[in-house]
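Q: What does the assembly look like in three dimensions?
Context provided by user:
Components: three
Sequences:
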Amino acid sequence: MSTATTAPAVSDTSQERRQLERTWSDPPGFYGWLISVDHKSIGKRYIITAFAFFVLGGLLAVTMRLQLARPENHLVGPDLYNQLFTMHGSTMMFLFAVPVMEAMAIYLVPLMVGTRNIAFPRLNAFSYWVYLFGGLMLYTAFFLNSGPDVGWFSYVPLAGPEFTPGKRADFWAQTVTFTEVAALTVAVEIIATVFKLRAPGMALNRMPLFVWAMLVMAFMVIFAMPAVMLSSTMLIMDRLVGTHFFNPAEGGDALFWQHLFWFFGHPEVYIIFIPALGIISSIVAAFARRPVFGYLAMVLALVATGFTSFVLWVHHMFATVVPGMGKGFFTAASMMIAVPTGIQIFCWITTLWTGRPVTKTPLLFVLGFFFILVLGGLTGVMLASVSLDSQVHDSFFVVAHFHYVLIGGAVFPLFGGFYYWFPKITGRMLHETAGKWNFWLFFIGFNLTFFPMHQLGLEGMPRRVYTYSEATGWGDLNLMATIGAGLIALSVLVFILNVLWSLRRGEIAGDNPWRAGTLEWATSSPPRNDNFDFIPAVAAHEPLWEQKEEPAKTVGLSTEVREVLITTLLDARPDHRLTFPDPSIWPLLSAIAVSILFVGSIFTPWAVVWGSIPVTFALIGWFWPKPGKPKRTCRWKSRHDP
Amino acid sequence: MTHDQDIDVSNLPSYAFDSRGLMWWGTLGIIAIEGTVFVLVLAGYFYLRQRTAEWPPGGLPTPELLWGTLNTVVLLVSLIPNYWTDRVAKRHDLRGVRIGLPICLGFAVVFLIIRVFEFGALDIRWDNNAYGSIVWTILGLHTAHLVTDAIDTAVLAVLMFTGPLEGRRFSDVNDNAFYWYFVVLAWIPIYAVVYLAPRWL
Amino acid sequence: MSGFRQRPFEKGIAQPSRSCFEGRTAGGIALSIASSGCSGIQSALDPAGPQAAHIESLWWLMVWVSAAVLLLVTLATLYAVSHGRQARGLDAEPEATPDPVAERKRALIVAIPVGMTIVTLFGLQVASFTTDRTLASLSTDNAVVIDVIGHQWWWEVQYVETTPSLRVTTANEIHIPVGQPVVLRLQSNDVIHSFWAPNLAGKKDLIPGHETTFSFKADRAGVFRGQCAEYCGYQHANMGFLVIAEPPEQFYAWLKKQRAIPPPPDDPIRQHGQEVFLASTCSLCHTIQGTPAAGKVAPDLTHIAGRQTIAAATLPNTPGNRAGWIVDSQRIKPGNRMPPNPLTPQDLQALLAYLGDLQ
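A: Here is the predicted structure of the complete assembly.
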């Protein structure tokens, strides 16, 4: 069939630039925003939506803390409280933590590898809409007093048809379906982008550690999330069509749920943690003014952590009837996973030691990470012991542990990343003093909230209790924790105000305010629609630091259609050009069709059958090629202004 | 003026086959996800098996072999037109593709019909017991893959007749064949577990 | 009952003595304030038996090791950011390709903490496995065997005997002899629960479809509180229980008393109370031995007056609390399975008198 028609080389640079910018821009107005397939636009809305869920989840937590601040409190009764902790956990795990990390990848990975868009741009848009609709469904159910109340991991038989009537558990299960579809599609995009869209010369061993972290995360998503998709679908089937997966009376098993769920659930927390490690590497390198020490060890540590996380899941089941010998294996694995993380920490410390860091806000959050994450990791080693776990499992000790590792290990780096990349995304710096206030309020508030919980767990306070008696003596520590929660809320408020203020009045950032070395800093802030006028050619590890003279570029991609360069897997040699899709309404339409199918199937199994029909049509509309577009008329070959 | 070291990619092709192409990696991603689902559900089958003394439970006979085995044969034979279509697509042979895709589609219709008989011959419902639940789920999941594969092939077949056509569409045929291989080959362990394992366990 | 002191209250949960030092010396009181977390009747840090004691030792080992690690990492990090090699700042030239020789030297240095990490983790694993084995080696010779069946939201307790007439069924309160091993056979009637009495041992889940055993021993007398530790629905927070460890003679005396069937009431008020009980819906759910009431879905009330708490260690067992519970338990423990019983004051008083005799 027809291939490229050769076109005359054009030499007017500014006209070329404008043409390229137009080709990659979205149509104007709200409709343009709806049909955008630009990774930056999608990435931004993903980050903002995930942050909104973070705030919602935080408000749920503050409500819980207010109820628990005093013994025998009557602020919130058992039914609402049980919904609160379920919604809090589900929001944070499914609607905030994984989506926000994927969102950082969506925005930054194409820039860091030197390409114009993420692979499968329409799928990217589709993923956002599915995620949004899933979150909206869950909160609608909650505000209609049908919020799930079975805990974020929804154990059976409690969540089964006999003990949770109504649709509460179904809304939980289907939220999982929505968010896992969204996460899986993004994971595929990330892998394809990293493997095939890297700038020429960016061999695998020249990729930023952030990109490696996102690549490892994406693989983990692909192998872990199917387990929870399967288990949540089985739960809906038990509840809706009478299957017996989890019904012991008919050959099913309550532990079947736990195995399937935790096979996902353990890698899930590393899916959240590993991208944060990538963020740390980016910030440490920039602020230590040298590449992270021990690149190969760092990459291997990421991969080892990813792999090992898949063989830990039974440590969530130490209190069950799993045989003792089996448990011993999981103790060993759960302790040894600390080794690759330890290696990373030692490498970062070495990097900082041999540089001279400037303690601006991004680095403060990194330092906060070091303290909090290490503490959390140490309690994790304690929990890895079957004997010790038998005392503190399902108590507030565990609540303390996982907040230390998740907030310390993921949220602190995330905030550091916000401060670090806000200039790139918006073109302005966040206010530095407000940033310091943000950090210290968060650090102090966090420790005040969660450190006492270790003690509470040892003193016998179980999880998920809406109240406790005066005589237990748990009141003082709970009050302390509630005060800390207030400080955390205040620190998040400071952040939000900082963002709102800085969007208007922040210092103009310029291309590279941190003088960092990776490719996202080689373009304007915010980046041009096409990311780079010319795809850069990469010859070194930290391209902006090492390539002093004007580096080589890639020329010859069209300015009139959205062309990207596909390179080879290992060495990133140019292989072929590919035309990427223009903005399209089909991802949104498909997401609507899919959402109708998902929500409908909470109420009737026939929704799967009838709902597939609009989904099929939407997907056909999506994939059907557009006729007769003028292709490749203009190749931009010259780079220099005349 | 261009810089000496600049890389001029204007003469590179605009699509590629197999793992050189981007869509192939997308297809591989789907295969990895769905393959993981199959591995997990088959593991679940064995997990539930070891919870019961008798399997299939309740005195039920082991699943009858006729329709399942017949479908296995049909699926395996369908690999031939699938392979052939893949090859002619890589040679940019439009006529060949216009013959091959409808043949593949014909096979798809046949194995979907036989699949209906397979369900019928199961002799147990999904809501009888955990055995029924897991067997229906395993077969149901694979059937969903057969259905999507059939629809993909049908849409592609129509497209290759009506257009709009360009070189990339041959790469799409190539990716479709890749997915077809997965759906057929994934069936083999599933067949072994659903039909043969209860006879041996 | 040694170790237990009742305090006056209006509502709320049983108030056993909190600190193990309380009432002994003034200094003990001061110490108890200082170490407020280290004692208590529901605390893993105040072991009353070997299982909890072994775990507590492991805990202290891990705490000290962890504190040392945290301190070292924190110090190294703070040093790294404040005493770097040279003063720079963001405008200074980055060291894009550090000297490979220097990097190799640093790699050798970094290998040391990595090695220390591996060795430490290995040591902790050994400590953990040793503790696991020690816990498993508790002898169960001459053990008291007790079936514990979890319900939403109470604990059914049955003392196992081969002779049916010697079996004892009670609820939410487990008496055990000091110094003798106890084997619990755990099952669940509905959803997953978890039996956790931290002073005595770690927890074990009660999983429907999976019966399991769990053994421990008390080395000193006392009243210890436990609570369900696996979220089990509405009133998970108020599914507590008491383990009362007493000297063997006292325990066997209690058991004997529990086996006795209460005689029929001998005065008109109590007789009327029994009539009220049998005529109302009570007997659909509860059992009182020696009467036709044989309901199995709620706690056995044969010896209800002898228990220290009601509503699964939620309320002290006083007539006032019993009255409030009978009339409308939903106001105390909303969502629990017992319906309100609007009785006339006369009937209520008679019923209370009758129940009050069931020691």
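Follow-up: Confidence is low (pLDDT under 50) at residues 1-36 of chain C.
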